Structures are given as C-alpha cells and as structure tokens.
Amino acid sequence: xxxxxIRCLLTALLLLAAVPPRIAAAETAEAGATPPAAQDQAAQQxxxxxxxxxxxxxxxxxxxxAMEWEKAGGGDAARHCVAASYMGLKQFDxxxxxxxxxxxxxxxxQAPIMAQLFFxxxxxxxxxxxxxxxxxxxxxxLKLNKNSVDLLLLRATIYGDQEKYFEAxxxxxxxxDLTSDRGTILTLRAKAYRKLGQPDxxxxxxxMALKADxxxxxxxxxxxxxxxxxxxxxxxxxxWVKLIEIAPDSYAxxxxxxxxxxxxxxxx
Length: 268
Hints:
- The longest helix is centred in the N-terminal third of the chain and has 30 residues, at 59-88.
- This protein has 13 helices and no strands.
- 75% of the residues lie in helices and 0% in strands.
- By secondary structure, the protein is mainly α.
- The chain has a domain at 1-128.
C-alpha cells in the first residue's frame, strides 16, 4: 500500500456537522414520526458524501460547492470537503492547513477524528515536500491516539526517506504489534533491514509479506531489489516482470521498470 496520497485515504466521515440533539430525536421517534435530527443528519451525510465524491472527480467544482456549503453552515463536514478539493487540485499546503484547522477546533472527546485529520494533514505536507511539518502533525496525532497504525506507518515511511532506518524500524515494530494486517509493515521492514546491511532479516521479512500475499506489488519490488543486489538477475527479473503484469500502472511498477532497465544496461 502506498502512503503517498491522501486521496486514497479520505474516508466518509461526517465531521460534526450541525445536528439537533439526540434527546429531541428520541422523543419524536416515540411519537412514531421520523425525528428531525435523523432527517437533518441523513441530509448532511448525503451532501457530504456527494461533495467528497465530486472532489475526487472534479475538484475545482467541488471546492466552489464546499465553500458555499461552509458559508451556509456546513461546518466541519464542508471544511473537510474543502480540504479534499484542495488535494484534488494538488494544492497540498492549503489542504494541510485546512485539515489542521479542523483538527485544532474539535472538542477533545473527538480525539480519534482529530488524530485522523492530523494524519491526513501530515500526508498533505509530505506530498508538498515539507517532511518536518508532516512529522510535527504526526506527533500531534500520536498524542491523541498513540496506537494509530496509520500514523506510525507514515512516520516510518518519512524516516525511511530520510535514511533514518533505525527510527523507522522502531515505528514499524510498534505498528506490527498493533495490527494483523502486516503486509505493508513487513515490506517496509525488509527495505529498512536491507538498507542497514542485514540481508537475512530483509529476506525473512519480504518472504513473510509474499507468503501473506504472493501478488503484493511493493513486496515483489522489494524482493526483486534484494535479488538484484545479491547478483540474482534472473530472480530479480522474474519478480519485476510479474509485478508489471499484475499492477502495470502502480508506483511499484515504475520502480520495477527502472530496475529492469538497469539490469539490461549491466548485461549489455
């Protein structure tokens, strides 16, 4: 799984849009009518989901719609769609700041949502090339939810990009203990161990990842890289060709094509 884009991780959260009290809804329900609170909440949720869908397809139109909705009282749901629209327009800094503002104004009893918003803001800053700002938001998110696998994996990825492999392993090991979905973790650990000159540990981790999912593009890219570095060009080629066949448009496939080209140059 790639952690490069917030667009793949914007979830359909109804972020505290103005909804009448639940007590009034319960009283109306006893009378046999559809409670106004439920009607309003359903309408807000439908509007939010439509706005987020539009942000993924036509972000410029979604931004205009979301801003108008916010002025009309759409609250945090509208602002979140504004942020999603900025992401679609690749205005990553604007998206990050909008997400931070939403997180910072939520009440403390919404800590899980706040942590997720800081995670999304961190992704936006990372896409904008501001890794230190991303790390700051990750730190804020982990204060709210220390067991967030998403936050730990994103920080490990950033540490890996900064060649801080020991720090990356600390986060990856912590994440490993918090989830049963470990394919991405194992692949990232394999890369970290390879970079630290621990080929046996690197091999063990990538083989575990591929045992769980033999067609995982990132794991195939990593094993191919390990094999190429060990001088096994045929093994590397087999992994990378398989990867390109399975996921030709993936980020991993770009790495596989680069690896195949390098093998061909050295062979010639």
